[in-house]
């Protein structure tokens, strides 16, 4: 079975990337035909003002992929922008994809509002107008076929209109100051590329006629959109693309040093490129149970991010001992962190050394990308020959 997946090059990878994605990729390459894409065109979706960072980020991410076990002898590793056929098929798909399919994609607005940190504002607007909207709908002189769906659609539209009104200056300007987001920030994400990036994702999958895509639940709408686009193209021009299946994977959310989800944007990540000294500083500064202030206080290991790491990197016998000693107040947080640091370092040290070796050989990195991209291009070119013949253009 042909499996495809990819990542936007945002720089060095952290532990969350490995346990959430890469570990599964390594397993899949042993069982299937796998293609792994460095999605540098997707990096432009929100980072089109920071293009100077992209080439370095591509290399750093590739170094981490190789370090963590993605094998160019087992998988096709390629760079999206090296395959110009992606852009051609993106143009064609954009001609046949209804705009409503993109606007209804639940991750579009969620991503945009979270990026601008205005998701809570949208929820507040919806909560404030819901009751009045129910009354308004009830008084409409029309038969309502689906009250709940109509209500949700109007809530979305009115909330969006209020947010736009805020950025246009029609609402309280002090609220905009408190959000610390400008009108420019709002419209900088209001681009065709941002709205249409799921179409490019569909291209990434369908141009290789991939049969499966490993995703978490939050990405299911994107796979369904790819299936819809495949069906629409096939209905219009004849059977061409298989409908890809979502290969659901569990993606455990590894906590960062502050207890939140590990993320570069939160500045709470542990990177594979971290030195031993950087790792020690981060681990010893880890957030722990706020109710455990001193060694004798009973702890709640189930709420402590450090204990989460013990469950991954410490032997089960030792984990049980740590859990019991923490609950009884016998184990202090400093000693608990030191034990976790020791076990985490055992995992990271050989990877750190391996990473340093790959980082020295830039010629090897270029060769891997060149060879993988040539393999990917040969597949994409055949697909595009078929597509051009079907649409009678090109």
Give the uncertain stretches in residue-range form. none
Query: Structural class per helix/strand content?
Result: mainly alpha
Query: What is the name of the CATH class of the largest domain?
Result: Alpha Beta
Write down the domain tally.
3
Major sheet: 3 strands, parallel
What Rg, in angstroms, do the CA atoms define? Answer: 24 Å
Kindly identify the CATH topology of the largest domain. Answer: Rossmann fold
Number of DSSP helices? 17
CATH architecture of the largest domain: 3-Layer(aba) Sandwich
User: Percent of residues in beta strands?
Assistant: 5-15%
The 3D shape can be described as: globular
Compute the separation of the termini in Å. 30 Å
What is the share of helical residues?
55-70%
CATH superfamily of the largest domain: HUPs
The count of β-strands is: 5
Physical arrangement of strands within the biggest beta sheet: 1-2-3
Residue-averaged pLDDT: 91
Order of helices and strands: EHEHHEHHHHHHHHEHEHHHHH
